[in-house]
Each structure stands twice: as C-alpha cells, then as structure tokens.
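--- STAGE predict ---
source: upstream dedup step, 1 unique chain passed
mode: sequence only
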Amino acid sequence: MTITVHASLLSGHGISLAAEPHWDVGSLCLKVQQELGLSRIKVVTARGTVLGGAATLQEAGIEDGEALGVVVKDIEIVGTYDGRAFAMIGRDGSVVTWGQDSLGGDSTEVQHQLRNVQQIKGTRGAFAAILEDGSVCTWGETRQDVTFEAVCPELRDVRKLQASFGAFAAVRGDGRVVAWGSHSHGGRITGALKTKLQFVRDIEATGLAFAALCADGSVVAWGHQDSGGDCRAVADRLQEVWKIRSTMHAFAAIRKDGTVVTWGRVDAGGDSSAVQTQLTGVREIASTGYAFAAIRDDGSVVTWGRSEHGGDSRKIQEHLVNVKHVQGSVSTFAAIVGDGSIVAWGDRLRCLEIRSAVCEFRVKKHSEDPVIFRQECRSTGKYRNDPVTADSFQPRRLDMNSYRSAMSINVEVALLSGRSVALLAELDWTIGRLLLAAQQQLRTGLDQLYAQDGELLNQARTLEESGLQSGNILQASVRPKRLASSSTDFVLLCETGSVVACSEVCLGKTLLPHGSLVDVLHIQVTTSTFPCCMRLQIIVYSGG
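--- STAGE serialize ---
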C-alpha cells in the first residue's frame, strides 16, 4: 500500500512524495534530498526523531499523510583513526582536506570528484566518500589486500560507509555490502559470506571487524575473530536486532525486546554475562574503547567491560538516576542526569589533567566582539556529533491559502540574560515554529517559551489558540546541556550556548564547568584531543 508523506524546510517550501511502507528510511531521505535539490539533509519527524539507520518506514512509525521536517546539515569534520589527516564536508557538499599527505591529507588528485559529498569515513591512513550519484571516491594510503580499483565497479547506489582500522565497507541501496582494504580487518568478503550479506540495512565496525544488520533482524559479522568478527557463539540470540554498537574489539546488539547480545573480546565488553539479568528495557548503548554503558527505559545505566575504561559504575550508581544521555571517550563515560548535572566515571589518571584543562577556560560575557580562545592540543581526528531534533517545531503541510489569509502579529522573545528579538509572526504559526524562528535570530539553542504570566506554551498549538496578541513579550528558556567527546576529551555545550572542554574525568566525580566560550552553535567529536596542530586558535563570534 502506497502512502503519502509531506516534507518541508523551515522556510515553508515543501514537497509531497508517494512512498512504500517497506522502504528503508535512507531511501526516503535520499528521495527527499533529490526532490528538494539539496546536498546534505536530515529528515525529522514531528515527534522530534531523526530518521536514519536500519528501520523501514513502517517500523519508524511513518504513516500516510505524515508531515516531516527537513534540516540542512552543517559542516562535518572526519579524521583518520590516528588523527594524522582530516577531511571537512562543507554545507554544499564540497570537501577540504589537510594533514599528512600520504595518509589522506592531500585530496588534490580526486578534488574534481568531490562534489555534493554525502558521507566520509576514515581508516588509519585513507578516506572514502559517498558522492551524490551513489558512487565512492577514495584517497590516501593505497596498500591494501583488496584494492579499491578491484571493487569500484560494484560501488554503485551506496547509502552508507563504515571503516575499521584498515578496511572500508559500503552498504548499497539493494542491501548488498562491498568491502575493500586489509583482509584481517574485514576488507575481504568471500563467496560464502557474500551470500549471507543480503538485504543489509546498517553496518557497524570495531577496530578490526564489521557487523552487518540485516532486514530480518539477524546479524552477520566478519573480520578479525577476536575483535567481533565471529558471532557464531551467539548467532541463535542475534534475532530481531534493531541496533548495533561497538567498542574497539567487541559488539553489542540491542534487540527489539530491549535485551542485549554481546560478542568479541571479553575485556572489551564482549562478555556481558555478569550483568545480563540487568540488561532489559535497554533503549541505547554508549561505548568507550573497552566498555559499554546501556541506558534503560527507567533512566538507569548498566555498565560492563574494563573497569578502568568505565565498565564498572558501582561507586557512582546512586548518582545515575533518570539519565538522559551518555557519551563515551576512549576510557571515560559522562552522563547527563535528570537535573541537568553531569556524572562521569572511568580512568582515574585524567583527574588532574581535567581540572587544569577546565580552569584554563574563562567565562566570556556576550559581546559584539569576537572571542578568541587558544589552547594547546595534539594532532587529532574529528568525528561529528550532530544532534538534530525537531522538538521545537511541528512540520505541517504547505497550504498557501492559509498563508494568504493569516494575520500577522508582533511578539518579542526574551532571554533571562536580557537579550531579546522582535518577530513578525502569523497567527496560524505553531508555538514550536515561533520558538525556532527566535532561536535562529538569537543564534542560541532554545527549549521552551513561556507567556507573560509564566504559563508554559504548548509547542503544538498555534499562536491564535494560545491567545497571543501583538505586543506580547514571551520568555524563552535555553536548551539543556549536551555532551560530545573525543577519545580522550569531552566538550560540553552549556545552557547558555557556551562550551567547556576538558580531558577525561576521574571516577565518581561530577564535572562542574568553570569556563566557557559564548554562543557556540555546534560541537564536534574528535578521536584524540582537539583539532590538529600544536596550537589551536578558535574564533567564536557572539552570534555563534
């Protein structure tokens, strides 16, 4: 049965598409992107869920007449495993590279191909990019057991790339998988394995192996056996899987019933038998290099793996209540709990380094002048942590008649800091749309709007339904904190829009930010420390 979905940009420009419930969400996103003529987008449901991963439209809850929001992606920076080279995808899909030339820092020979790039992944010394037409372009180190040239004819209609330490794997639109690179790192797919790798929806990687999630919920793994490349011991339990996560040498699969199956190196989280009875109602899993942390539906956290990498959270378990989000670096976890505070655990040896790093930041008040921050850092790679939600707006069908007849009112949205913005809004706008418009003007992440009498405004209701009138002054609250991490560092986006960076935290300590950069809009994740050179200079303007 064909369904119709409506996808629209924040500007109101939108399209209607006919789709099949069995389509994977990646196919829908690609179709929306092509129809709107955009390079890189994220598609968001009215419930605030970013469409992606392995689900079909039916599994994602997309129904006939569904209204979807379309968000244009910002820049993304990716690094090789050891941080010797970097690649940045611009908003228009162009690519800039830097770092060690022979390990991916020089893309001169393929620069003419790097247009409208959709995704980039890096191994220890090479990059691979998905182009607009679904083909793949590579550059960097060429020493491979299976060369790119050998599999290039098969690399068509590629939807997703994944990389281990020395190999790439690509998922095509027809569910087939193509791999190249080091044989021992998962870069070779034999005939028997190729037969199993059909109707693949998603793929995950450890340092030396890959695991593919198939449409029927089963899992196929290959690569180095000790790094998760052999899942035969748990094959009977790998059914109805909907998500896979990984450490450096182990995989964890979340099943639809909320239980978890693990395999790979025992000391890297491949053995969860000690906590298996607790692994129920799991909604998400985070990882460090050698440990996993599972967030349950009740907001509690279950950990396993190397204790020095965050696999033992018993000493701070009483603080892990109503957990909203967990982020892992190479050896430390940090969790945002219900009251907005942060609890971290893992490697003790980083405590002094963290304190000194945090104290180097100084609070900068909002001003019109750029704020310049300098910080010593090591050569790194960056991985994008790009949280995009639509909690603050409700996409709807584009109805030009309603736009013509709607009445406009002037409202002011103010922050507690005293900053405010005057907006011309239509009475048929939702509160969510007004919030988003204010957020764009203030260039600060906003969470809720409140009426003059302090009443919380329902984001799904229109301005008219909320009783708003011209001249009303609304109070806005800022978006709650978020975390990003590198393999040895955390970056915290504070409620004010400021950023605090620090190295890994000691066991059981609560991270209290002592400094900030003002109005930063995006956070990126690195694999080491913060970006590339002996001294980093970041210029952050008051508007972001």
